[in-house]
């Protein structure tokens, strides 16, 4: 099953990178829209990136992680904390999607602060997951 773990790690790297890039893309798109005034429609790039890259990577990462958990019968206290951190990453992912939908409807109030907030949530959850995964061999149940 090394290929499954490799696929999981690749999907996680892409998803984490997307969670870091999406807030910057949202802020840049918001600024471009504000600079153009009423002449420009909502930017298409944030939605395209969210739907075509971030969401499939998230789904593959979660699916392969679940398969690894089931196949290797992983149990331990660290796993519960890791799953809570993954839930935080999912919340940040959903929040960024919500911000993109709001931006497309022309609601730009709070988009910058929301993007920064969701980025901070994503980074803190990523650091937590990485810490727990690396500390797992210490066998704390």
Automatic annotation (TrEMBL):
Catalysis: reaction(s): protoporphyrinogen IX + 3 A = protoporphyrin IX + 3 AH2
Described purpose of this protein according to its UniProt entry: Catalyzes the oxidation of protoporphyrinogen IX to protoporphyrin IX.
GO cellular component: plasma membrane
A UniProt-annotated Pfam family: UPF0093
Cofactor names: heme b
Free-text comment on the cofactor: Binds 1 heme b (iron(II)-protoporphyrin IX) group per subunit.
Gene Ontology biological process terms in this record: protoporphyrinogen IX biosynthetic process
Origin organism lineage: Bacteria, Pseudomonadati, Pseudomonadota, Gammaproteobacteria, Oceanospirillales
Record localization: Cell membrane
Protein's UniProt keywords contain Translocase: no
Membrane disposition: Multi-pass membrane protein
UniProt cross-references to PANTHER family, sorted A to Z: PROTOPORPHYRINOGEN IX OXIDASE, UPF0093 MEMBRANE PROTEIN SLR1790
Membrane spanning stretches: 6-27, 48-71, 77-101, 113-135
Official protein name in the record: Protoporphyrinogen IX oxidase
Biological source species: Vreelandella rituensis
Keywords: Cell membrane, Heme, Iron, Membrane, Metal-binding, Oxidoreductase, Transmembrane, Transmembrane helix
């Amino acid at each position: 099953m090394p290929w499954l773990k490799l696929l999981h790690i690749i999907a996680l790297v892409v998803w984490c990178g997307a969670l870091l890039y999406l807030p910057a893309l949202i802020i840049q798109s918001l600024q471009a829209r504000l600079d153009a005034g009423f002449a420009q429609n909502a930017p298409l790039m944030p939605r395209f990136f969210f739907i075509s890259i971030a969401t499939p990577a998230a789904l593959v990462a979660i699916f392969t992680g679940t398969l690894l958990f089931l196949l290797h019968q992983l149990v331990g206290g660290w796993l519960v904390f890791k799953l809570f951190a993954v839930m935080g990453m999912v919340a940040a992912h959903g929040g960024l999607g919500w911000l993109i939908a709001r931006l497309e409807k022309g609601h730009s109030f709070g988009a910058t602060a929301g993007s920064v907030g969701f980025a901070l949530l994503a980074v803190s959850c990523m650091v937590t997951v990485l810490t727990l995964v690396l500390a797992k061999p210490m066998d704390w149940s």
